[in-house]
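Appendix C: a fully annotated inverse folding record. The material below is reproduced so that readers can follow the format used throughout the book. The structure is listed first as tokens, followed by the designed sequence.
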């Protein structure tokens, strides 16, 4: 049984008739976190901040009806176009500066889409497209942190080996998580890129609620690098300059 992310998720819900029952049962078995089947996505009767706090600590399992893979293009061309893979909606970390914090303010529940058959069929079709190598990367971090609750869902253990067997496609995990245990023994064949966002401790303490520290993220990245993954870092919102330790200095 997986060690549960109790600080992030207090309850897991699966929606009757709209959720793959076999995948939901598998996830329920992975954790000791309370879980239940419901008729619809749970919503608090509270408003404003109270609603936010009532719903931010749950995880909803659901089948995705919309396409899993879509190309993101900024309306004014201010962002480089890329392909996103929506395996999750919303994030349990709740960093105050993140656009997800306000985008889903009235529906703060985190959702994991578990109809993997549909997802994998779309990825396989995508892998057969003749596109430029710079567009081959499927971004899993546009609408969520894909590793935040991976110890609960075990999703990485499903998708990383699957993509390792395909040509012309790679995965990009954008994360602040230190939850990498599931990834370390997987067959990835250099088809998965792990990118961590780092900040000064002041920013983490003030605005990145429930995230691991930047040092914990770096330690997780070191473990992943030792397992052969390509590692990337982004550093932003730093109040004061800070020096990142080298991997060799981290125990």
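Designed amino acids, in order:
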């Amino acid at each position: 049984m997986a060690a549960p992310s109790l600080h992030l998720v207090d309850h897991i819900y699966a929606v009757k008739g709209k959720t793959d029952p076999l995948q939901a049962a598998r996830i329920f078995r992975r954790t000791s976190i309370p879980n239940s089947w419901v008729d619809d996505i749970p919503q608090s009767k509270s408003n404003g901040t109270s609603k936010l706090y009532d719903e931010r600590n749950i995880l909803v399992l659901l089948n995705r009806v919309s396409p899993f893979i879509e190309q993101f293009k900024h309306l004014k061309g201010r962002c480089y176009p890329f392909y996103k893979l929506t395996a999750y909606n919303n994030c349990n970390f709740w960093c105050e500066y993140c656009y997800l914090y306000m985008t889903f303010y009235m529906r703060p529940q985190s959702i994991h889409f578990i109809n993997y058959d549909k997802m994998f069929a779309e990825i396989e079709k995508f892998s057969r497209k003749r596109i430029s190598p710079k567009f081959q990367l499927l971004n899993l971090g546009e609408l969520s942190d894909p590793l935040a609750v991976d110890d609960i869902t075990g999703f990485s253990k499903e998708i990383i080996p699957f993509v390792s067997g395909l040509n012309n496609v790679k995965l990009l995990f954008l994360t602040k998580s230190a939850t990498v245990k599931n990834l370390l023994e997987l067959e990835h064949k250099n088809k998965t890129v792990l990118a961590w966002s780092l900040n000064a401790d002041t920013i983490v303490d003030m605005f990145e609620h429930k995230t691991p520290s930047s040092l914990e993220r770096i330690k997780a990245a070191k473990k992943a690098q030792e397992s052969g993954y390509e590692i990337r870092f982004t550093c932003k919102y730093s109040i004061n300059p800070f020096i990142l330790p080298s991997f060799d200095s981290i125990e």
